[in-house]
Structures are given as C-alpha cells and as structure tokens.
Design goal:
The structure is a homodimer.
Chain A lengths: L3 H11 L6 H13 L2 H17 L1 E2 L6 E2 L5 H4 L7 E5 L2 H10 L5 E4 L17 H10 L4 E4 L5 H15 L4 E4 L15 H9 L7
Parallel strand pairs in A: 3-4, 3-5, 5-6
Antiparallel strand pairs in A: 1-2
Helix pairs in contact in A: 1-2
Chain lengths: ~200, ~200
C-alpha cells in the first residue's frame, strides 16, 4: 500500500474498464512523473466531458449541444434511420461512408442476465420518432451477438405493424477473412445470405 | 472522429501507458456514462497527486511530506540500505516483510539506448548518504534484467572501495515454478547460487 494520495489514485484508476491493479499502478506512476501541465489537461478533459457532453435529444448520440451534428445536418436523409447500440457504433458506421441517413442510439442491448430489458433502452423514443418524423426505412445495426440478435428480433416484431421497411445488416464472411477459419455460425449465415453473381 | 470534448478525452487517455486507441475509447465512454461524482473524484485524485505527492528528500520514494514514512520510521534499521529502481519496487520488497532497513530509489536503471546513464539516476544522493549516515550494508535490488544488471555492476564497482558490505539479490528459480519451464539463464543462475542442504 502506498501513502494516501497515490493509493487513492490507483484505486480510482483501477475502477476504469480494462484497467487492472498492475496497469492502475503503472498509470499512477506515469501521472506522478509526467509533466504537471499534461496531467492538468487530462484532469480537465475528464471534468469537461462530464460538464459539456450530453446525449442528443433526438437520437441519443453524444453531443455538446441539445442535438448532435448528424441530426442537425440537413443534407442527411431524414427518411432512413440506422438503429445502433452505442455512440461508438455511430462512428463505426460513419467510417464506412455508405450510410447517409440518421441514427438512433439505443444505449445498449437486451440482456436479461444483466437486467436490461426493452424498457431500459431508448425504444420508446424510437417509436415517438416513427410517429412524428417521416420515416420510411429502419436499418437495425445491433451487434451480431446474442444480445444484439435478441434486440434486433424484438425491434423487428415491434416495427412489423407500422408500415416501414425494416432490415438487418447482413451477416457473413468478413472481407479479407479466411473461409477455413470462419466459425460455423458465420459460415452458415454466409450460405443463407448468398447473392447471385449473374451479370 | 467524435465531437470536441469526447475526442480530446480519448486523445488524452490514449497517451497513458498501456492504453491503446480502443481502450481509450472504452474508458472515455465509461467516463461519459459514469456517475458525475465518481468522475469528479477521479479528476481530483489526478490533480491532488500532482499537487501533494513529492519525492522523499532522503531516499527518493514517493511521499506527501518532505521525507517518506519509511525514512521517518525510527524502528527501521538505519545501517542497511536496499537500493531499488522505482518506488513500486519499495512496495514489492515491503510486501515480503523480510527487510527492516531503509531504501534508496534510483529513479530508473542504466540504459544507454534510452540515454539514461549513471548521472541521470540518484547515485550521487546515495554516495552522499554513505558519507553522512552510518551505513554498513547495501543490498542492490535492481531488476534481474539487462539494465538492472548493468546498474548493479556499476554500483558494485563504485561501492567496492568504500568499506560497506554490498550484496545483490539472489537469482534462481521462482518459488512455485517448474524446473522444466525455467529459461536457461535462470536455471544457470540457480546452479551457480546453489545452497548446501546439510543439516
């Protein structure tokens, strides 16, 4: 055990995700030895984020204003909504440059073990958008894992009756991957979703 | 890329040791979603450490006062000094509960590639202690790697003429380890340092 402030810092750092006791100690000593100005900037950026960053009133994405830059962007197609689990998924889809619509961030996925049901997610807000905005298509882009699939299935059923086109991102072989190393579920999905190559 | 404050936080976190871009993003989103009070405490503990923690005037260990708790402790044997590379090594030795003397923290090890020579380490301070204090024994506990060995050899030569007992921690098989998996250098050292088992 270290003296007061050092141990406190190690404890605080150790509560961050993916930071074990050894990394917490290593980061704490880095902070101790680093330039005070740099460390002041780190501390300030933590408080700034908590003070300034909020969640977009419309889609739930992170933003420093009432609505996020994507919802404010009038060049984006307002008739298509891509539903994702987290803000980081928005960034991932944006990087593809192949989606020009808007987003809806659920804030997680259905996970009964962790006690997260549909009512803990921003599904009610999505339904409100569907009745208020002129939405024609919903693309469900939840993670291709158990929780993501459960969420997609739930949303699919919920949206069935509303008269919008609902789709789910394709599952299949990752580009640049190796058929030999693909797991059987992925390979099975790739077969199911096979596309015609006739020219 | 995220908007302003979030990206700034990710950048700052990414500069910490052992935190890659993915972990920085994960930690940043944890901070965003965490309780504001908890995050205020994290930010405060960073600034507190920088304001309050200093290095002990005598041994160079971390402390919140002019001298560290070990140097202040009159029950510790003032005639034996254990020389370590970093403050974290002090904690490691303290955990063994088998050393009752005092410490001297060098602040690193000799590493010509990184441009760290003996003059960058707290060796001058050690020599001053040797002339001022009643020291009879020096135990060199630098890391058992290339840089630590170089530092130990350098210190050994420097201290030779002073008339104090100088020793180096034993190298050998780690307790609970497996002979089969020991590397050849460690096993070689274990042979060299073998001890009589006669009762």
């Amino acid at each position: 055990m270290y003296e007061g402030a050092v141990q406190e810092l190690i404890d605080e750092l150790g509560r961050l995700p993916g930071v074990g006791p050894k990394s917490a100690q290593r980061i704490a000593f880095h902070i101790l030895e680093a330039d005070p100005e740099d460390m002041k900037r780190l501390a300030t950026s933590i408080t700034t984020v908590k003070e300034r960053v909020q969640f977009c009133e419309i889609c739930g994405n992170v933003t420093e204003e009432a609505t996020c830059s994507i919802c404010r962007d009038t060049r984006r197609d307002p008739s298509v909504i891509c539903v994702v689990e987290e803000s980081k998924d928005v960034i991932a889809v944006e990087r593809t440059r192949s989606f020009k619509g808007r987003y809806h961030v659920l804030g997680g996925s259905i996970n009964p073990i962790a006690g997260i049901g549909p009512e803990q997610l921003r599904i009610r807000e999505l339904m409100t958008r569907l009745s208020d905005e002129q939405i024609q298509e919903i693309i469900i882009a939840t993670d291709p894992n158990l929780e993501g699939e459960a969420t997609a299935t739930y949303l699919g059923r919920l949206l069935q009756s509303i008269g919008v086109t609902v789709s789910r991102l394709a599952s299949g072989l990752p580009v640049g991957g190796d058929l030999e190393y693909a797991d059987e579920v992925t390979l099975g999905r790739a077969f199911e979703g096979r596309r015609s190559v006739s020219s």
